[in-house]
Design a protein that fits this description.
7 helices; 176 residues; alpha/beta; six-stranded parallel β-sheet; 21% strand; two-stranded antiparallel sheet; Rossmann fold
């Protein structure tokens, strides 16, 4: 499994559409889906899943859909404004291990986008690297996202030139 894709988007509607497909596909395949996103995006995803009649998969007793707040989760992984490797591996490793129960895990994460939006581009790239390191220890598919507006005003503002060389295990890059 261990796919690591990054999705670059211009508008939230494109992001929600893409992530909704990613989440729905995982739930339909009885995978555990972990969503680490902003409150707004978690609410949009839930609304989309309800609209697509996937709400039964979101019942409180269903452990296949696990939403987390991106900023809160990120705060557990940082030390001095930098992603701390052992904290990341322990916290995210525990979340994945407890969610997996032996089955496939699918993760959508916005922590990298939160860091990038805060002007912490190097920390965002480091977090992507830590996801890749964790993928060597755990089995999961990961979709991260970046809004294209985050690249405005930066030297070499192309997402592909910024992230693809820095993340060697990256399997897919999309821009919409």
């Amino acid at each position: 499994m261990n796919n690591h894709a990054v999705y670059f988007y211009a508008e939230d509607i494109f992001l929600i559409e893409k992530v909704l497909h990613f989440v729905r596909q995982g739930l339909e395949q009885n995978e555990t889906v972990i969503v680490i996103a902003t409150a707004e995006h978690r609410a949009d995803l839930k609304s989309g899943l309800i609209a697509e009649n996937v709400i039964g998969l979101l019942a409180p007793n269903n452990r296949n859909y696990l939403p987390f707040d991106a900023s809160t989760t990120l705060s557990l992984l940082m030390q001095n404004d930098w992603p701390h490797e052992s904290l990341f591996l322990r916290v995210m490793g525990q979340i994945i291990a407890s969610a997996a129960s032996g089955g496939p895990v699918r993760i959508y994460g916005e922590m990298v986008a939160v860091l990038f939006a805060q002007g912490k581009q190097r920390a965002a790239v480091r977090l992507e690297e830590l996801w890749n390191k964790l993928a060597m220890q755990s089995n999961f598919s990961l979709l991260c996202s970046y809004p294209l507006f985050a690249f405005q005003g930066h030297d070499n503002a192309s997402p592909s030139s910024t992230f693809v060389p820095a993340i060697p295990r990256l399997r897919a890059v999309e821009v919409e």
